[in-house]
Design goal:
Number of helices: 0
Structural class: mainly beta
Largest sheet: 20 strands, parallel
Shape: elongated
Radius of gyration: 21 Å
Amino acid sequence: MTVRIWSGAAGDSLWNTVGNWDTGVPITGDDVYIISGSASINGYDASAVTLDSLVVGSQYTGTIGTSGAKLQVSATDVDFSGQGVTYLEGDYVTFTVLDTSSSATALNISAGGSDDITTLRILGGSGNINLAASCDITTIEQIGAGGVTLSILDSVDLTGASLTMDSGIVEMGQAIPTITIFGGELKSTIDSGTVTLLEQYGGKVRWNVTAACTITTLTIYAGLFDSSNSISSQFTITNTTIHEQGILNEKSGISNCLFGSALLMEGGEVIYDIGRSITIS
């Protein structure tokens, strides 16, 4: 295991140029630090390399890769605070985001195999984090990241995955089986799939789904669950419980929410279309 620090001293922006590193080009098992300066790194296929760790520091302002040519390298642990635009592709056990630039393309993550990202932990930032459709993710945590928008594209593999959030925005284009919301805003535009459990303790859920999908169990302890802008002809919520500080607004004008059982009201409020019949217990 060797520490490698990017300098970009060779001036050609190439990952595989020895002169751009203090101790040579990274190999499997190395700890890589890209922590300062503005020397950009071109896209490069280092997919055969799995780093022990990759750190992109907050004083680094260069770009890494492009949308058409990503930096392909895997790492056990990634700590990201870079202030440039970054395109990465690889397998990551733990990917922690501490900061980003304010760009709509601040951090872009792609992947190519199964179980590509075990845990994505977003703890800060001020721009967009974009997950490509090729990603497989197990756990997403967005905590204390009020300035971040996480975009999860349709066809991201979220089989068995979970999302916990208390801040920022998550744009969900693919169903996540287990969701816990303490704050922030979840915007769902899914067109299929099942959310097995959605527990809301605060914040907002914009359930703007576009086709048939299902929430098996929805519990609203506090906050707003709003499906009034859904254009799906029908979606299903099998079991629904609303507590004192919870609000469910399904007044879409097309009565498109099918409740699988009576709404259990422990308090709170339900808003629905005039003339619609809903069973409440």
